[in-house]
Design goal:
The complex is a heterodimer of chains A (591) and B (79).
Chain A lengths: L2 E6 L5 E5 L9 H12 L13 E5 L13 E6 L6 E6 L3 H7 L2 E7 L9 E5 L5 E5 L8 H11 L6 E6 L1 H4 L7 E3 L8 E3 L4 H7 L2 E7 L11 H17 L1 H10 L4 H7 L16 H4 L1 H11 L18 E3 L5 E4 L3 H7 L8 H14 L3 H13 L8 H13 L2 H6 L3 H7 L7 E2 L2 E2 L9 H9 L12 H6 L13 H18 L6 H6 L1 H15 L5 H21 L12 H4 L13 H6 L4 H8 L3
Parallel strand pairs in A: 1-6, 7-12
Antiparallel strand pairs in A: 1-2, 3-4, 3-6, 4-5, 7-8, 9-10, 9-12, 10-11, 13-14, 15-16
Helix pairs in contact in A: 1-19, 1-22, 6-7, 6-21, 11-13, 12-14, 13-16, 17-19, 19-22, 22-25
Chain B lengths: L1 E6 L17 E4 L6 H8 L7 E4 L2 E2 L11 E5 L6
Parallel strand pairs in B: 1-5
Antiparallel strand pairs in B: 1-2, 3-4, 3-5
The chains are: A alpha+beta (591), B mainly beta (79).
The complex binds iron/sulfur cluster (SF4).
Iron/sulfur cluster binds next to loops of chain A.
Chain lengths: 591, 79
């Protein structure tokens, strides 16, 4: 049983219906994107009543598939204006899937803008909306505490919460999901989906899975065999079995810096002299000294375990162990080389409910205007704190890098489709530039992680300084990522999948044993292509053209040290990345 | 000739001075030394690795020159 649950915020009605027949192979991003494509007018106001906020566990959610518990969140994005899917770990995907919910669709908008609702989804299938106006303005951590007080002591549940940034409808607002220890520290970060949640008056969702078993499989024995094969591959590969669990994602800081692609001080240099102070190796040493945790999964069933907890100098939990992206955005991109300052910033943006990538890039742009100095962590924290009270500066910063850059007259604003670039400069790593430029999501490294063959020597090897082969690489990765996101698989399974044939096989064996449908490599890739086709067509209907699939001009003109290169992939090559879309659209009968 | 050698992640423990840490060490090498010879000299395990010379990927038969920076990583990735 896989149902769609609809919650109408205008009327308070909650209904449940079976998933339409044609969508049996869809979960996660395939489902959120198909639903938004079908049901949200492309020209609608992202913060108006016609937008819909969709939460969908992947096709393997609620099972014991390794690393299969990611949640997709979809809507029309207030930041990009296009179709958005933000992907998040935490416990919510498993809990929704165990309740038989394939997609949770939040529709409409309450008449009273001051209303704050808690949506409660009980393990026995009971569902209700409760008015909790007193929770207005609470940070994510206080909201998690308030939810706890409403629950029985022996409950087991996941939370999905929205911070003040989302309530203020800020375009950098993110949605928080609780981790296995109930900390609201995993984020559907990108694209301002917290603002969509805020526009619907929805402060929080609690999903109980107390006593609920795993979702049943068509063939249990075959499923268990595929689980073993997949887990074995993930724990054997040097990256997913050793580097990520030991050092976390921030193990990348040194290698990206070495390659000259670590964006420093608002993308004005490719190497940061303070990298050693903020590297994954240093972070591990400091965390161990302080008694922090250096290895756990962000959700049950993760066998890679790149998550950790960051503790302050006194040995108290501060925030999740900052990921590579967060350390970069709130660190190197702002010229800050102090992990405690970065941890403080991370805690603040997490509690406010903001996308850390967008906010770091925004602070860097703000620093570039000269209003505060690069490297000044205390001034950066003071600026972010203004978002709580909604001062003019606070509201400007909360709208992201582009709005902030324009407000303060900054020349170089690193955005594509209005969304800030993540932690790899596209000039010395041309493959990631192709993904930034052409992704349906705006600048997004996870949409097609070309860092693999460009820098890390995973899944082949291409020269990162040259344009050759980059468009094809990005296309393949974008399609494969659409597939992984549809299954609810963590993108980090891609490292072994790219290098080990048995890891790839295990995915369609899992799919086949679970669904009882016939799956093979082509069927997997077809789901990825269909996902991208819905997104691409929606964006076209919203007014995007090939001209939007470009990097900001200065990446083509201003040379980045130390390699002193510009981005040289041609427009024709960028336009080839989505060449499969017309044929797939025709096969789906959509246009 | 002098070449800076820097080792990352768990490879840092293989620095010959036994001090660990990731700051670079100046190695005094004979002219014509290739990367593979340095790898052998340090005693790195026979495992996959990613090698840069002066911030560019380098094959292990590449010759080193005075003032080069040789950086060696185990396979790493993330997001
Ligand atoms: S590898 Fe990291 S991001 Fe992926 S599921 Fe595990 S803890 Fe979460």
């Amino acid at each position: 049983m896989r149902d769609i649950v609809r919650v109408n915020m205008a009327t308070g009605a909650i209904t449940r219906e079976p998933l339409p027949d044609g969508w049996a192979r869809y979960g996660g991003r395939a489902l959120t994107s198909a639903l938004v494509f079908k049901e949200v007018p492309a020209d609608s106001d992202p913060l108006g009543p016609d937008n819909k906020l969709v939460f969908a566990p992947g096709l393997l959610g609620g099972t014991s598939a390794p690393n299969g518990g990611r949640l997709s969140v979809g809507a029309k994005s207030p930041l990009t204006g296009g179709l958005k899917e933000a992907n998040v770990g935490g416990q919510a995907a498993h809990a929704l899937a165990k309740q038989g919910i394939a997609a949770l669709v939040i529709e409409g908008k309450p008449a009273d803008a001051a209303a704050r609702y808690l949506l409660v989804l009980e393990a026995d299938g009971a569902m209700k909306l409760e008015r909790m106006d007193a929770w207005a303005g609470l940070g994510n951590y206080a909201t998690a505490d308030a939810i706890k007080e409403t629950r029985p002591a022996d409950d087991r549940y996941a939370t999905i919460t929205n911070g003040p940034a989302g309530e203020m409808l800020l375009k950098a607002a993110a949605i928080a999901v609780s981790d296995p220890k109930m900390y609201p520290n995993r984020f559907a970060g990108r694209g301002g989906l917290g603002a969509v949640m805020g526009s619907k008056g929805l402060k929080a969702i609690v999903v109980s899975d107390k006593g609920l078993p795993y979702v049943e499989h068509a063939d249990k024995d075959a499923f268990n065999a595929a689980v073993k094969k997949f887990a074995n591959a993930l724990t054997t590969h040097a990256v997913s079995g050793q580097a990520l669990p030991t050092y976390g994602t921030n193990v990348l800081a040194n290698i990206i810096n070495e390659a000259g692609g670590y964006p420093t001080r608002n993308f004005s240099a490719g190497q940061f002299e303070g990298v050693e102070n903020i590297s994954g190796e240093t972070m591990r040493e400091m965390t161990l000294e302080r008694g922090g945790n250096v290895k756990h999964g962000c959700h049950t069933g993760c066998v890679i375990q790149c998550s950790r907890y960051w503790y302050d100098k006194d040995g108290h939990y501060k925030t999740k162990g900052m990921e590579y992206e967060n350390v970069w955005s709130l660190g190197a991109d702002c010229g800050i080389d102090d992990l405690d300052a970065i941890g403080d910033l991370d805690r603040e943006v997490s509690d406010l409910g903001l996308d850390a990538i967008e906010m770091g890039a925004t602070l860097a742009v703000y620093m570039d205007s000269g209003k505060i100095a690069f490297g000044d962590g205390a001034a950066a924290l003071a600026a972010i704190k203004e978002i709580w009270t909604g001062t003019e500066l606070g509201k400007t910063l909360g709208q992201g890098a582009e709005v902030t850059g324009k407000a303060f007259g900054v020349k170089n604003i690193p955005v594509v489709k209005h969304q800030a670039l993540p932690a790899y400069d596209p000039r010395p790593i041309q493959g990631i530039g192709v993904t930034y430029a052409t992704s349906t999501q705006g600048a997004d490294h996870t949409a097609g992680y070309s860092i693999t063959a460009n820098v890390l020597a995973v899944g082949g090897s291409v020269d990162p300084l040259k344009p050759e082969g980059q468009a094809a690489l990005s296309q393949g990765l974008q399609i494969a990522t659409g597939m992984l996101d549809a299954f609810g698989l963590c993108i980090f399974v891609a490292f072994p999948v790219l290098d080990m044939p048995e890891a790839f096989e295990a995915i369609f064996e899992l799919a086949e044993a679970h669904t009882g449908l016939k799956w093979d490599a082509d069927a997997l890739m077809q789901v990825g292509k269909e996902t991208l086709t819905y997104e691409r067509l929606f964006n076209e209907h919203a007014g995007f053209t090939n001209a939007d699939d470009r990097l900001p001009k200065y990446f083509y003109e201003e040379k980045l040290p130390p390699h002193n290169v510009v981005f040289t992939v041609t427009d024709e090559e960028l336009d080839s990345v989505h060449d499969f879309v017309p044929a797939v659209a025709a096969s789906l009968g959509i246009k | 000739m002098k070449v800076d050698v820097v080792l990352f992640a768990h490879l840092a423990t293989f620095q010959p001075d036994g001090k660990g840490g990731r700051h670079s060490r100046a190695f005094d090498l004979a002219e014509g030394t290739i990367i593979a010879e340095v790898v052998e000299m340090i005693g790195l395990p026979d495992e996959p690795r990613v090698v840069f010379v002066n911030s560019r990927h380098a094959p292990e038969d590449q010759e080193l020159f005075e003032g080069d920076r040789l950086a060696i990583f185990p396979p790493v990735a993330g997001g």
